[in-house]
Input
Amino acid sequence: MYAIRKRDLKQFPCGSEDVCRIEKGNTNDYLLESRAIEKFLEIIEPRYNESVEKFRSGKIDNDSIFVVSGFIAYILSCSPAAMRIGADPLRHMVEKTAAILDAGGKFPPPPKELGGNSLRQLLDEQKIFFEIDEKYPQALAISGIYHRTIAFGNFDWDILINEELGSPFFTSDFPVAIEQSDDLRIINRIAPLAPDIAIRIRPSLAEERRDSDFHFKYFSHRRHLLSHGEVRYINKQIVRCAEELVFFRDNQEWVFPFVRRNTGFRIEPITTRIPVDNGEFQWTTMRIVQRDE
Output
């Protein structure tokens, strides 16, 4: 396959082993079993191709739902983009907790050299900041990966069929694009499974769907044959949501200009603090935003 690196538009041929492997990327020392996710992947990876074929042929069963849901859950737990995005709400929580403790006199006054009267002021003026070890949100996500797999498998899915031979789906180092739904609280997920098939997962806020089980009794799906414009839209989302690398099977003339037009974006977490009673409600969502140069 071929790859384009977003930051400098360098293009090169590669194999999956060259670009999709991070040394000890799945090792997490915050967990009692640092390689716990590997046991999960031993269930998912050997059955991936067979499961994609079931989705392609319309012979979807519980096993294939589990495998594809698990694949999506893994990407959203362990990829570099997922770890970066997951650190942001934790950073806001730590900042808020520190500000509350500071207001209660639990910290000594900050050094005069920092030029602030309180920790809250220093945080607001960005003179100090907290760093979150991105392995920690990864550990939290790994701990809940079966729950997330169940949730995805009990949502509504679109099976997106791409018969545009000249426009196969791209993929990336974060192959789960986001899409805003009609409800501001809900983000759809779009994942290419192969050059000719992708899925759109439409989450539900219904508690019974999230608390269901591996029988996936709430799973529903519809098949949709995409137009050329719809294929371009999905590829645009894939490129914009990629963290650093975009991958494609066919090195056609239109690919590089297409990627170049959409390379200046990525997913960013957006955290909003909403006053409630005597405290704040912290709400984090995601948006595709233009990257800072």
